[in-house]
Design a protein that fits this description.
Layout lengths: L1 H25 L22 E8 L5 E7 L1 H9 L9 E11 L7 E14 L10 E7 L2 E2 L2 H15 L12
Length: 169
């Protein structure tokens, strides 16, 4: 009887260990999320359609490209404001450096940030319907950098649903 209890105990321990291993393998790693809004980098965003480009002068000296998901692109094409829930915009930014081959041109240098705006009028009701995320090397920027997002958008583009980027036709 004592041997049966020991064998049963060993079997239970083995099953617990195996179950833990299988659960750990199957559990996807949590994506890094921005403070305040909880925004993450969307899957596959680099394959999205180009919405517009910009060049930021000093002090940032950046070249920027904004990509939009299908919801965003349909809204831009239709001239729809406010943007519908489900709109996601991603801004890629690089240092603006002079071209070595053609002096009057600029080319992207080192990547600086990837910034994300997600429209969800219920989840982000307190911030005009938008959630913001700023990422450096795939990791969220600090809270202080996220605290400036809403104020900047509200002060400059309140009448364009807090979105700076215009459709590049």
């Amino acid at each position: 009887m004592k041997i049966a209890r020991i064998l049963l105990f060993v079997l239970v321990c083995v099953l617990i260990v195996l179950g833990t291993v299988f659960i750990a393998r199957g559990a996807p790693a949590a994506k890094p999320a921005s403070p305040i809004y909880g925004v993450t980098l969307p899957d596959g965003y680099r394959r999205w359609q180009l919405v517009g480009v910009a060049q930021e002068a000093a002090p940032l000296n950046e070249l920027r490209a904004v990509l939009g998901n299908d919801v965003a692109v349909r809204a831009y094409r239709a001239g729809r404001l406010p943007f519908p829930d489900g709109t996601v915009l991603v801004k890629l930014a690089w240092k603006d450096v002079p071209s070595g081959e053609f002096a009057p041109a600029s080319v992207p240098g080192a990547a600086t940030t990837v910034q994300v705006m997600v429209k969800d009028s219920k989840k982000y009701a307190a911030s005009g319907g938008w959630g913001f995320g700023r990422f450096i090397d795939g990791q969220p920027a600090d809270r202080a950098q996220h605290e400036t997002c809403l104020a900047c958008h509200q002060s400059r583009v309140k009448n364009h649903d807090l979105v700076f980027t215009r459709w590049a036709q």
